C-alpha cells in the first residue's frame, strides 16, 4: 500500500522528470534551428567548446601576431610564396605591376600612339597639298636603267607585305575593340581578331626573313659617306624641282629609312619573339643594365619573368607604332609622292631621267646597264 504522503512525492518526481525532458527537447530544437540559420547564410555556427590538442594556442610556437589585414597586404604587395608545382610564378597571387601595365597600355600609350599616326597622316597630307607630286623635271626619257634585281624586289615585298599585315592585325589588338567592333559587331570582330592573331604569329617569321634579306643585299649601299652631308645640306632637293643633289644608290634620306627599318625591325622581332615564346627569353633586365651604365639612369635590372613579359608588350607596341609612322612616310614617297619612284620596286626598271635626277653618281657607275637594257628592249641607243 502506498500512503498519501508517499503518493505526493511520486507525483512530484514524475512532474520534475517531465519538466527536465521538456527542457532537453526544447534546447535541442533551439540548437538545430540556430545551426540551420547559419547554414542558410553559408557560414559556420559558433564553435563547439575547444577540443583541439593545443587548447586554442597558435601551433608551432608561433606568436600569432600577424593579422589577416597584414597577410593580405603582403599578398597585395606581390610577396612571392612557395608552391609545389613547377610553375613558381604561381606563388605570386597578386602582381600589382599588371594594373600599372594595363592603365599605361590602355591610357597614355594608346592615346599618344593614335596621335602619332594621325599626326603623320595629316603632315603627309599637308606636304602633298603644298608640294604636290614631285615630278621628273626633264620628263620621261624613254630609256630605262635596272634599279633593283628580282631578288631585291622579292626581299622588299616580302618585308613590306608582311609588315603591312602585321601592322593591321597588331593595331587591331590595340584599337580594334574601340574602332572596328562597333562597326562590324561582336561575331565578325571576334572572327577577324582570331584570324588576325594567327596571321600575326606566323607572318613575324616572313618579316624577319625579309629584314635579313634586305640587310644582306643593301647594307653596303647604306653606309654613311660624304655625299650624304651635301645631300642633307640641300634638303635632298625635296622642296624644289630644279635642285638635284648628287647621290649614290641610296641617298641620305633613304639611308635613314634603311637603318630605322633594320634597327626598328630587329627590336620588333626580338620583343615579338619574347611574346611568341613567353618566359623563355629575358631581354629587358640586361638591356637596362647597359642603359644605366651608359646614360647613368636608374632602371631596374632585376626583373621577374612576368615583368619582362609586360615590358615586352609595351615596347613591342611602341616600336610598332613608331615604325608605322616612319613607313607611312616611306610609302607616300615611294608611290603618290614622287613620279617614277614606284617603278623601281614594281618592274625594277626606272626611267633614266628619274635616275639621273635622284641618283646621279649611281647612274654614272651603271651607264653600261642602260646601254644593255635599252638595246635589249629595242629603245634608243645612247651615242657611243
Ligand atoms: C607597302 C608599300 C610600299 C611601297 C609602295 C614601297 C616602295 C618602295 C620603293 C619604290 C622603294 C625604292 C626606292 C628607290 O628606288 O630608291 C623602296 C625601298 C625601300 N623600302 Fe619600301 N615600299 C613599301 C613598303 C615598305 C615597308 C613596309 C618597308 C619596311 C618595313 C619598306 C622598306 C624599304 C626599304 C628599307 C627600302 C630601301 C631604302 C629606301 O628606299 O628608303 N618598304 N620601297
Describe, in plain words, how this protein is organized in 3D.
The chain is an all-alpha fold and 384 residues long. Strands 1-2 form a two-stranded antiparallel sheet. Among the domains are: 132-147 and 227-379, Up-down Bundle (Fumarate Reductase Cytochrome B subunit), CATH 1.20.950; 150-222. Residues 1-5, 25-47 and 373-384 have low confidence and may be disordered. It has helices at residues 4-40, 68-76, 97-131, 150-179, 181-184, 186-218, 226-233, 252-276, 284-295, 305-334, 342-346, 352-358, 360-365, 367-376; strands at residues 144-146, 349-351. The N and C termini lie far apart (161 Å). Protoporphyrin IX containing FE (HEM) binds at residues 147, 156, 159-160, 163-164, 214, 250, 254, 257-258, 261, 327, 330-331, 334-335, 341-342, 344-345.
Level-2 CATH architecture of one domain: Up-down Bundle
Write down the overall mean pLDDT: 86
The CATH homologous superfamily of one domain corresponds to Transmembrane di-heme cytochromes, Chain C
Q: Gyration radius, to the nearest Å? A: 39 Å
Question: Can you list the ligands bound to this structure?
Answer: protoporphyrin IX containing FE
How is the topology of this model organized?
Blueprint: H1 4-40, H2 68-76, H3 97-131, E1 144-146, H4 150-179, H5 181-184, H6 186-218, H7 226-233, H8 252-276, H9 284-295, H10 305-334, H11 342-346, E2 349-351, H12 352-358, H13 360-365, H14 367-376
Antiparallel strand pairs: 1-2
Bound molecules: protoporphyrin IX containing FE.
Residues 147, 156, 159-160, 163-164, 214, 250, 254, 257-258, 261, 327, 330-331, 334-335, 341-342, 344-345 line the site of protoporphyrin IX containing FE.
